[in-house]
Amino acid sequence: MLIKDMNLSFGIQEIFNNVNINIPDDKKIGIVGVNGSGKTTLFKLILGLQEIDSGSISFFNKPRISWLPQVITDEVPDLDMSVFDFLLEGRPINRIEKEIEDLYIKISTLDNDKEVNKLLNKINKLQTELDYWEPYEAEEILLKLISNMKVEDDLLERSLNTLSGGQKSKIAFLRLLYSKPDLILLDEPTNHLDKDTKEFVIDYLKNYNGGVYIISHDIDFLNKIVDKVLYIDKLHHNIELFDGNYSQFKRVLNEREIRLEKEAMLQDKERKRLQGIIDKYLHGNEKKAKIAKDRQKKLAKLEENAVVVEKKIKTANISLHQGRESTKHTVMIKDVSFKYDKDSKRYILYKINLDIPKGEKFLIVGENGVGKSTLLKLIVGELIPDNGEIVLGDKTDIGYYAQEHEKINLEKNLLDNLDEFDLTENEKRGFLGRFLFVGDDLYKKAKVLSPGERARLALLKLTLMKANLLILDEPTNHLDPETQKIIANNLKTFPGTIIVVSHNEEFVDYLGIERTLVLPDGRIDYYDRNIVVKYHKLNEKKRK
Predict the structure, then answer these.
(1) DSSP assignment, residue 440?
(2) Which end of the chain is more exposed for a tag (fewer CB within 10 A), N or C?
(3) pTM reported for the whole predicted model
(4) What is the pLDDT of residues 113-135, one digit of tens each?
(5) What is the span of the domain harbouring residue 291?
(6) Would you give the end-to-end CA distance of the chain in angstroms?
(7) DSSP state, residue 445
(8) How many domains does the chain have?
(9) What secondary structure does DSSP assign to 70-122, as a single string?
(10) Is residue 320 part of a domain?
């Protein structure tokens, strides 16, 4: 991919300034940069979903491109379609075969040789395209991917709108791989993925016969796949390509920053020296004034070639507090069972028993689709158990962080999203500012926010609840590593109770988890990373 003289701005916000770079189409490339630098925007430019102000983006051989966006539901027009139908549409085999059939029928009605030859040429082109999609092997290829991604048969018949966030992500990924692209674009692909699926995806992408561009905050994922890193520099609105994986890139970048800081210090020292001479001699006698004017020229040249040290990016000021202490038992779950299809005999949760005392940090783990998010929704009262009961303590105040940020009103602006709290407008502005929302951002509708911005808004609302029981469903998804560290530090010292679902092992390790509920079997163990991994594998064996 060749980018020449590319410029792009959104209003007064400059994104890219005269970018010139040649990016290999067939390499495994990690795309990195701070939030708001233009990573997802670059994908939209490649796909033609966004136009540049000037310049050009071109490919030597125009590739077939498939994109996995951060928010899957934004890209699926019909959420009522079945999972299997959605997967089948990954290759346009049925459409092309129907077009060819219609053309043959049309030919049978013609007696004009010129028109017939014209349609035959069109059929030949369609047949060439059809051959690319391997119509005779396609079903076997899809079934093999379904097996490798460990998608169960009953899930294939379900509609997309019944899937959990993790299941949607897995199914969208499966369809993308089945679509046989020359170039894969992945935007935060490990959000929601369980450990085993993630390992399969890593192995698949490492050996994929095509190009892969990845935007990800998952450092381990990038290190295992990419051999080049594309760095989008928010300060200079430019793009630079580095050899090696993410860790090698960070080492080179850190060494560069240290060198620039030293050069900047030396320049600052020289600047002060020259300015001192100018101030001392500029208004003196002719000889001294001549010296001062000479130093002015040197100072002007120094300023012209001054080293610019990248400014440190501001981070969210997150602070979690509970309003009041809960009673000894915050929540008790007694023989709870639940199923979405009331006519089915299959329960997604069956006879779950759990007693969470005040102050405990508790983890729920398991494969995608085994009921982790469902259990959280039962606790907060969004769903009602078919059997059993959930009892909250008299003084239990719940703060719920939903996996897909359902608690955000997408049609309201950011200020109005805080209406549920007793705050003045100035107080709202202050809190939003701590979470990096300022100026015109406050009047944006939440639906135009990026997934990372929605996550920050959801975290802000969580802090304002002052709950003593936090229910957290994948709280690190869409967040940059720095914000993940900040939220982890807050949760570690939070005096209340925490129930968390997360696939982020480093994040979970840091929290000080005491016990773990492993679904679907409902067994409770004391937390240990190795035990969690062990149960992931045991669940896989059971399904096989």
Answers:
(1) G
(2) C
(3) 0.69
(4) 899 999 999 999 999 999 999 99
(5) 250-304
(6) 42
(7) B
(8) 3
(9) SSGGGG-S-TTSBHHHHHHTTS-HHHHHHHHHHHHHHHTT---HHHHHHHHHH
(10) no
